[in-house]
Predict the structure.
Amino acid sequence: VFSIMRDSDGYMQFQSNQSDSSTAYETPSCIPSIRIIEDAINKKYGISPLLLRENEPTVSYLYSLDQAGKKLVSLRYNKTYKLWMVLDTRYYLIINDFLKNFVLYFIIFLTTCVSFFLLVRMVVKAENRREAEILFQATHDPLTRLPNRLFLQKNIQHWLHNEEPFSVLYIDVDDFKNINDSFGHATGDALLIELSNRLKVYFNTLSKDPFIIRYGGDEFVVFLEVTQDELLRDVLHTLNTSLDKEYIIQDMRLIASVSMGIAKFPEHGRDLDTLLRATDIAMFASKKAKHSIHIFESTMEEAYLGNVYIEQELRKALQKKELFMVYQPQFDTHGHFYGVESLVRWHNDRLGNVPPNKFIPVAEASGQMPSIGRFILSASLEEMADIHRHFSTSFHTSINVSIKQFLDVTFLEHLLKTIKETAIPRFSVTLEVTENLFIEDIDYILPLLNEIRGLDIKISMDDFGTGYSSLNMLRKLPIDELKIDKSFVDEICHDENAQKMAQSIIAIGKNLGMLILAEGVETKEQHELLSHFGCDRFQGYYFSKPLSKEDLLHFLQTTL
Ligand code: C2E
Ligand code: CA
Ligand code: CA
């Protein structure tokens, strides 16, 4: 209610509430009297009645009078007209009003809070999901969806801390590179996916939550609870039968096999590195046999270490000029020198003299054969060209060519270039190949051999009778010379079967129009017997050991 009162006598001058108006103007003083209010204000705010009138502040004051409850009064004095302007409201109305508004605003506030909370929760959830996704991507291989190396490193502790024995299985696809090279990477990838699916299916039948990791390109690591040898072999043989089944990829039927290496915790290692190294060593043994399963044994270590070390040192051998050639003289039926077989040698500071049949296989396996092969060809032909200049004539030079060299597409180009540079006549160059050349892609090898032969370069079949051979194949091959392997020559004087073998080889070779060379001839008896059987050429310690270029020069100067 808004009212205006006169200060002098408290008479109401105006009251907004119409219903009271009749009596209001007749009541001499407003309720409560101005004086009481003045007192109360003085008590509460410390504003004296004088100041209240002088400064004209607006003051609010809460008081209760009747049963109707409290009232809130705001008043202000107007000194010009000496009037009090009073605004009073029942307190419960204000409270009601406040409550009404408060509830409304509270509801708005609450909904805002809840929405905000939900929003934050959604953001956090999305963020967590993204984080989990990123973690998944970092720890899983996108191709096979299997956990990767990082995952293995993060989760290995669980296995190691359990102290329960377990086995680590290392799986590597045999000749995967060939599959990739021949059919393309898409096919290779599809094969890996299918293979990993077979792994998942198989190991899921063995345990609830198998731990299969794609460790590298075509390498997988699996943790197994089985540790007993017999049982392990059983489990893995069964796995092999599943993996050996043909893979149908883009309408092609492919066959792939794997090799496996196994190490056991804690027997073969108490940490991941040691265990994986042990599986690697066991794998090395498996790779030799291919498509086989090996459980780590300490005896495997030596062979593995030796080869790893040889491989590392061999990589530096060419640059450090540790490789060189020696030449073993060859003789005809009349005992006349006509040529040499060139043989590679390697002397390493730490390993000493490493025999070629030890490091050539390492060079082949580690992809170093093309470059070492180029060195062998160049060095042999250059040094022999030097020898030729001393005698103004040319001798035969037989050079061993490894399969891997032969398969290198730049091989023939390099050979012809070297022959041209050294001015050695092509007809005095012989390439010695072995039977295992024909296990490889015969459709590639045969035309190449024919091309070489067409260029007047000779082909010799080394170690004949020791490897894979088919007489039918021999018939088709453009071969000039057959070398009877040393193992037959060794036994020829006291083993009838070896004698018969040598005789048969000579007969077959002659029938096919080839020259026959006996290698590893160490005694006069061997030489005589082989001469008698019809051998055309001889090589061996009986005549001469392999010689350095200088020694060969000296040898020729004294014998020719
Ligand atoms: P291979 O081609 O059959 O070489 C003959 C091996 O018999 C040579 O051993 C030679 O020194 C040895 N030898 C020759 N006559 C006798 C003998 O009367 N008695 C005995 N006990 N041994 C004899 P080397 O030089 O150690 O070579 C071993 C194998 O290493 C070679 O067998 C060949 O397969 C490979 N090799 C050697 N040099 C090269 C090369 O330059 N390139 C390639 N790709 N392989 C090579
Ligand atoms: Ca040879
Ligand atoms: Ca040989």
User: Anything to note?
Assistant: Residues 328, 343-344, 355-357, 360, 376, 400-402, 462-463, 486, 519-522, 539-541, 546 surround C2E (ligand 1) (CB under 6 Å). The chain has a mean pLDDT of 90. The two ends are 145 Å apart (CA to CA).
